Amino acid sequence: MTASSLTADLTLLAPELILAIGAMALLMAGVFFKDEARAARFIGPAGVVLLVIGLAAASYLVPAGVATAFGGAFVFDPLALFSKVAIFGAAALAILLAMPYLRDERLARFEYAILVVLAAVGMGMMVSANDLIAMYMGVELQSLALYVLAAFNRDSLRASEAGLKYFVLGALSSGMLLYGASLVYGFTGATGFAEIAIAAQEPSVGLIFGLVFVICGLAFKVSAAPFHMWTPDVYEGSPTPVTAFFATAPKMAAMVLLARVLLEPFGAASDQWVQVISIIAVLSMAVGAFGALTQQNIKRLMAYSSIGNMGYALVAISAASETGLWALLAFLVLYMISVIGAFGVILAMRTAEGMVEQVDDLAGLAQSRPGLAWAMTGVMFSIGGLPFMVGFFGKLFVFYAALQAGLLWLVIIAALMSVVAAAYYLRVVKVIWFGEPTARFVNPAFTTGTIANLAGLASVVLVPVAALVFLWARGSVTGLF
């Protein structure tokens, strides 16, 4: 490898290198602070700045078009750019939401922001993976940081249980992913996506088995049924800002990676995997819709909502087309906007005694905190896909892609599951506006309230947001596969 080619390769990985080196520098800086709370006050904003720099590097430092690095193991294309901007932005918002919570809950440790940044490095590698080994490296780098984040509150039994469950089940899914990758390599003799694509034009039975295991491993990462069993417990047990992070950026990274794996190396074998993805989509939508109906904890309700919405994202992948890919990107970004707003309101659910997490605790929010009530109403309607919120357009794009692919039966099931799911979103809104106040919330932190209100505004008023996301998503995938 010549010096010029090495420089070109490192340039393509500039966002990840900036984040990785910056995280190590912040770790060293945090060690030298004598006061841990003071270190957290410095490292938190520094982590946000670092993610913004990584976002800018992805947008401006990396050459336009499609380019590969390290022998084709990593690719930087418009799809990777779109995904990294969304992921780094969501990670920065997760740190901003976490800072007041960690301070109030006396969990202010500087490692939090560093772990989020390192997870973002793994996610950036995931969406740029163009090789089975690169794919696995990105998945594991992301997962190891997330395991620690889930158990970040080490004094809480619930958080420790959440971290342990996530780690054990995550190790199982990683084993399935690695076994599937080894089968694919065994039957194709290659790990690069381009070489696998040639062999997949006439797929063998062994290759299909390998693909199924890869799908199962990645389905765990997006909490798709029947690999969703970890999600409700981990969402409930993890600190609330960690749950907010889990519900946004990692979902985007894993779903884009799944789409890239299926459409690039196995695009010619779409007849073999469309049925599998469609079944997983139906199961996810059903589990999400019916599982949330009886939930009283707002974080568990959001967990089942996440499972259901990943089912809609899989409907877009089932289309196995360019239209399905841009519909997937648009849906995920619009979904993340609403979810960030929802968790902003959940983080504002603090009384003089501490955090509360029950749906009934939102009763009377319209009288005590009308701004938060309007924000939560908007994001609930948006996540539920009610016309004409931005979330409605996300589902509309997904349904359009599925209809173009001739999957009318899948669209009908998705529409029916949306009707069922609307029941628990409307229940939250009913409690907010018609319930008798049961808890008196203290004033939320400025950052938390601002993010919640802006996300609520974007979900309800800024319908042009959907048009902008649509144009950017479509331009990111045109002619890609």
From TrEMBL:
NDH-1 shuttles electrons from NADH, via FMN and iron-sulfur (Fe-S) centers, to quinones in the respiratory chain. The immediate electron acceptor for the enzyme in this species is believed to be ubiquinone. Couples the redox reaction to proton translocation (for every two electrons transferred, four hydrogen ions are translocated across the cytoplasmic membrane), and thus conserves the redox energy in a proton gradient. Belongs to the complex I subunit 2 family. This is NADH-quinone oxidoreductase subunit N. It comes from the Bacteria. The chain crosses the membrane at residues 12-33, 42-61, 81-102, 109-127, 164-187, 207-230, 273-294, 301-320, 326-350, 371-393, 399-426, 446-473. It is a multi-pass membrane protein. Residues 129-418 form the NADH:quinone oxidoreductase/Mrp antiporter transmembrane domain. Keywords: Cell membrane, Membrane, NAD, Quinone, Translocase, Transmembrane, Transmembrane helix, Transport, Ubiquinone. It comes from Hyphobacterium marinum. It catalyses: a quinone + NADH + 5 H(+)(in) = a quinol + NAD(+) + 4 H(+)(out). The lineage of its organism: Bacteria, Pseudomonadati, Pseudomonadota, Alphaproteobacteria, Maricaulales. The keyword Ribosomal protein does not apply. The keyword Transmembrane helix applies. Its EC number is 7.1.1.-.
